Structure prediction request, 407 residues.
Amino acid sequence: MHRILSVLCAIGWLWSICIDGLPTHQIPFADSRVSKAFNNSVSEDLFQELEELSRIVDISYCVGTTGIQKPFLCASRCQEFDGFDLVTTWNTGPLLADSCGYIVVSHPPSPPRIIVAFRGTYSVANTIIDLSTIPQAYVPYPGDGNIDNTGDSMLESIFHPLRNYRRAMEPEKAECTKCTVHAGFMTAWRHTRNEILPHLESSIEKYPGYQLTLVGHSLGGAVAALASLDFKVRGWNPKVTTFGEPRIGNDALMEYMDQIFLSDDGMESKDMYRRVTHVDDPVPLLPLKEWGYRMHAGEVYISKPSLSPSVADLYHCDGDEDPNCIAGADAPKSAQATNETESWLQSANPTELWNDGKTILTIPARFHIWQLFFAHRDYFWRLGLCVPGGDPADWYRKYPHSEIDEL
Prediction:
């Protein structure tokens, strides 16, 4: 089944690249509920920032293909960013829990930042479903050192949480009661953690006034989310933006995450964590809520199905699962559909459901898996190819801008 899905993904990917005039979206995954007037519009500045970050994370798809070279050279959009100085790239391998990305220091004329860009995976459906079967306990601060958080080292961090508590720079944030996390996403972060921490520590020491900035797409969004929690407990203050981030854990973990990113006045912070979703993208609805997974706050919703959106198409969403945003799509359209879905989900665990000979067409209809080829990549640009200007089908599009010609 995995081979069939991989072939389908490859066919869909090439199909979306090579056929002239191919639509950039299918039937909208959810009605554009936010088209009604409500006072959560984004600012022009935020729109510009998110668009720039979509191009920055798009460059991460060069890692593992043609590569990124110093000072900041690649086959994609690197030339669009003045003042960028590559620190390192990483690639932990081609397995389901793979992780790729790069670290770059952004000097003036660009905003002064230390940017960590987490690449998505070409096997996102496999990763989400195959590794969902065993949610594991979440430990916010598993410690430092040259460990991979497996075996004795991982067991020590779980069964001796007071050691983690004492070592944390902000110990009040080092405990997450009854929190569980997606095992595959946590594995991807563990594989990444020891690759990037030494580079981040030296960069933060060298540029103490620079903003630590995390950006991720797809699986990279999930890894960025877990990285941000680790960094907050360390006393760092990351600014996080994810595109098409899947659900990463249970209610308790989402409450913990929301609390970690609250602003100083106790209000929900819409500045330090932006979870960007798209009206047609199924990935933010996976893994299924029926398996115990939930969303967290900070959502910015793109209500326009096709490329390219304008500032009027983006909205801040309220709380963890605003029904006016992507969560509104996560509901069967009838009582009969509800009963059929519940019966389907309760029949077996996630791995069995995927491996028992069913095709991807047996997934409940509300999950438009083919949108992995379209809407899941359509965040300001069509993400996921390391070629000049992004996806060849989008060469004719200029990136959204107002008075600023270059970012």
The first helix runs from residue 2 to 18.
